[in-house]
Amino acid sequence: MRGKNSRAAAVVLALLLLVLAQVGPTLAQRSTRPKATTSPKKSKAQLERERRTNLRRIKETSRILEQTQKQKQASLGQLNALKEKLTVQKSVISTISSELKYLESDVRQTTTQVQQTQQSLAQLKAEYARLIYASSKTANSYNRIMFLFAAESFNQLMLRLRYIRQYSEVRQKQAAQITSTQQHLSSQLTGLTEKKQEKSTLLTTQVAESRNLLTLKTQQDQVVTKLSQQEEGLRQELAERQQAVSRLDNLIAERVRDEIARAARVARAAAARAAAARATKATAARSNPASASRPAESATARTNAAPAAETPAEEAPAERTDRVTLTPETAVLSTSFADNRGRLLWPVSRGFISQRFGRHSHPVLKNVIVENRGVDIQTSAGEPVRAIFDGKVLTVASIAGMNNIVMIQHGEYFTVYAKLRTVTVTEGQMVRTRQSIGTVYTSAEGTSEVQFQVWRNSSNLNPENWLSRNR
């Protein structure tokens, strides 16, 4: 009887070793299996932020467009607002398409992960079933005791005891892993459902935005058609604008020349005062009796002071006619302004560039090229206009076609704000960044637009290279 029990225990031991040999590698493979790569969440988050930003811009542009549509007659301001809204609408659709690609990739990857988890779960259950079957062979505690005491030596007894313990541990691990895998599978299925719902919502949004795009294109075509019927009025408006631009250019050039000459005069006067002070000091040193005891020092002082006293004009810096002569304070301000290139504040808190810098085709008139010294920023009626950087108000003026003008100096840089309805600063006043300098002018057609320019001495610069991308 004892021989039979020993042989049965040996068979069970063999089965147990076989199961352990199969389960061990399976657990190792499962633990080292590479996880499926997920979509870069950061990029997806950036896309979502971009979509929210574009939707906010659409709301702002819609508000500006409504103000231009209050007038019965079509206008360039209305056309510019429609173009901007159309451009942003296309960006929204493009962003949604990119988000959908991420979601489709997520859905595919999650589906693959669900299938892999289901396969792993089925394999775990099959392995656990084999363990249970093997366990049933030794369910009788008497068989286990007989199996242990059938050992031929103490070492064999300890080895068999260790096998029994390993068998119990593996079964517990299998049960725990099955539970964990089931929970993971449930979480994956929930995430898959959420992603599919999000994808469905985005698809619906994309369809709606595409319809809005078609509506905007129709409105744009209608406005272009109406404006084309007003060619004579548009040409007259263009001629008046060109005259106003010419007057503004002349004003800016005159003020820059005046500032260059003024700064040169100040520099010469400062150099002359410094030379006179050195000459006075040298004269006082020569007339001091105590200087006789220091002949070498006095001789050196006379040698250094004599040229300044005889030719004070030579101490003055050469007068510059092409750029502003900077003092130490204005040099720091000028350098700070240059260092903030591409990060400067917008002159208005909301709006869009309705006409860009440089030469470009007229939006309606064929074969007509217009040139812009700065950028036109279309915004809401009554919008405050603010200084983009610290500086000194150099000029406050009024020009026909450009309304009120404010010119602010930042060392050797100048910013110009035109088409202002009101002005709240005066010439010579020091202003700080974000300080309000006036409000935007609204034309008879309902277009609220500010003309903004950036200059370095007599050189005209592209403001878009200086303004921040974020308002």
Structure characteristics:
471 residues, 14% strand, disordered N terminus, alpha+beta, 2 domains, Glucose Permease (Domain IIA), two-stranded antiparallel ribbon
SSE map:
Elements (H helix, E strand, L loop, with lengths): L1 H31 L8 H29 L6 H62 L3 H9 L4 H75 L2 H57 L7 H16 L17 H12 L12 E4 L2 E4 L7 E4 L2 E5 L4 E3 L4 E9 L3 E8 L2 E11 L6 E2 L4 E5 L7 E9 L2 E3 L10
Antiparallel strand pairs: 1-4, 2-3, 4-11, 5-10, 6-7, 6-9, 7-8, 8-10, 8-11, 11-12
Helix pairs in contact: 1-3, 1-4, 1-5, 2-3, 3-5, 6-7
Commentary on this structure:
By secondary structure, the protein is an alpha+beta fold. It has 2 domains: 2-228, no CATH class; 337-465, Distorted Sandwich (Glucose Permease (Domain IIA)), CATH 2.70.70. It is 62% helix and 14% strand. It is built from 8 helices and 12 strands. The chain has helices at 2-32, 41-69, 76-137, 141-149, 154-228, 231-287, 295-310, 328-339, and strands at residues 352-355, 358-361, 369-372, 375-379, 384-386, 391-399, 403-410, 413-423, 430-431, 436-440, 448-456, 459-461. The longest helix has 75 residues, at 154-228. It starts with a helix and ends in a 10-residue tail after the last strand. The model is unreliable at 1-6, 8-41 and 295-316 (pLDDT under 50). Residues 1-28 form the signal peptide.
